[in-house]
UniProtKB/TrEMBL annotation:
Keywords: 4Fe-4S, Iron, Iron-sulfur, Metal-binding
InterPro entries (alphabetical): 4Fe4S_Fe-S-bd (IPR017896), 4Fe4S_Fe_S_CS (IPR017900), EFR1-like (IPR047964), Flavoprotein-like_sf (IPR029039), PSI_iron-sulfur_center (IPR050157)
Domain spans labelled 4Fe-4S ferredoxin-type: 221-250, 252-278
UniProt keyword Phosphoprotein present: no
Keyword presence, Iron: yes
Name of the protein in its database record: 4Fe-4S dicluster domain-containing protein
């Protein structure tokens, strides 16, 4: 019912434009006045996602004054300076560490905010992920007031059957409720972890031989192969946050530094992307549990993953 028109645009359009302006001001940290003179907090939430869990969580923690920003897009735009009343980050833990791109982003970023929060999603074992993020951000001169973890579907394909994983109840609404209420109260808190969890992480690092200063930074040509099932749909060229896939006259080729986010292998509609056989690699020694099962968060479309990651 767009009946009231003023100056050539409808009332609804005018309100929409005003909303867009208010959302735009969030990037500059401006606190807006509502109609009744109350001030509204501006919040930015940064996220990194391979299969949608973190985008889903970021969306759930957003209100109408929140701007959601994808870290691969910020890197692409070389946008490292952000200002708002509150800045949050949602990322998946990889071997209890942040994705390499997230780590490199935070090392360069200048985040000006009165309150900073981090939500780390994981599937089974978080170990001292909170302590690792605290250390990285302290060293970067960008400490966080609130750091917590949240369990979601585990998208680590080598060890888990995605079909089985999706059946598990990870109590996601309960976690979201807890985190939302903490953020409303601007809680200053780092979720605790035990010495045992720290030791488990050390054992994992010794077993995998990963560099603690880098985390998962692989080469896509070493780990992924494209089979004849490929139909040249181009999805892999759009979901990779590093732009590692190309359609060529000889089929799809992949090459480049890789976060191991699995956006490519999980989102290929033909299941034509598979892990190479690497029996000597501790990460892939057991191959893959179920090469026929793939995962994307049920609330997140393929289009949204492309929007988040396209290079
Ligand atoms: C390379 C890699 C490493 C992972 N390491 C861990 C881990 O150490 N512990 C854990 O519980 N889950 C681990 N996971 C699971 C993800 O953290 C989890 O599924 C996350 O919610 C995925 O988020 P996304 O859908 O936004 O990409 C790992 C996943 C990947 C791809
Ligand atoms: S997403 Fe899969 S089917 Fe589509 S081009 Fe890439 S490898 Fe081929
Ligand atoms: S090649 Fe695949 S796993 Fe590596 S960064 Fe790109 S989408 Fe992620």
């Amino acid at each position: 019912m767009e009946k009231e028109h003023t100056g050539g645009i409808s009332r609804r359009s005018a309100l929409k434009r005003m909303g867009a302006f208010i959302a735009g001001t969030a990037a500059w940290g401006m606190t807006s006045l509502t109609g009744c003179g109350k001030t509204e907090k501006k919040r930015i939430i940064l996220y990194f996602t391979g299969t949608g869990n973190c985008l889903y969580v970021a969306r759930q923690l957003a209100d109408e004054h929140t701007e959601l920003l994808s870290i691969p897009q910020l890197v692409k735009e070389k946008r490292y300076e952000l200002e708002a009343d509150e800045i949050g980050i949602v990322y998946p833990i990889y071997g209890h560490m942040p994705p390499n791109m997230v780590r490199e982003y935070i090392k360069r970023a200048k985040l000006a905010a009165g309150y900073k929060f981090a939500v780390l999603t994981y599937g089974r074992r978080k170990c001292n992920a909170v302590g690792i993020w605290d250390e990285i951000t302290q060293r970067a001169g960008c400490p966080f007031d609130y750091i917590t973890t949240m369990i979601m579907v585990d998208n680590w394909l080598p060890n888990f059957d995605m079909a089985e994983e999706m059946k598990l109840d990870k109590q996601i609404p309960e976690s979201l409720k807890r985190i939302t209420s903490d953020l409303q109260a601007k809680r200053h808190w780092h979720e605790p972890f035990s010495d045992d969890e720290r030791r488990q992480h050390e054992g994992f690092m010794a077993y995998t031989g990963l560099d603690p200063e880098v985390g998962f930074l692989m080469r896509s040509e070493k780990y992924f192969a494209v089979t004849d099932a490929c139909i040249d749909c181009g999805i892999c060229t759009e979901v990779c946050p590093r732009g590692n896939y190309k359609l060529t006259s000889q089929g799809v080729k992949t090459e480049g530094d890789c976060d191991f986010c699995f956006a490519c292998i999980q989102n290929c509609p033909q299941k034509a992307i598979q892990f190479k056989s690497l029996p000597d690699d501790p990460l892939l020694a057991r191959g893959e549990i179920n090469p026929n099962a793939r995962y994307r968060n049920e609330h997140v479309s393929l289009w949204s993953i492309k929007e988040a990651n396209r290079q």
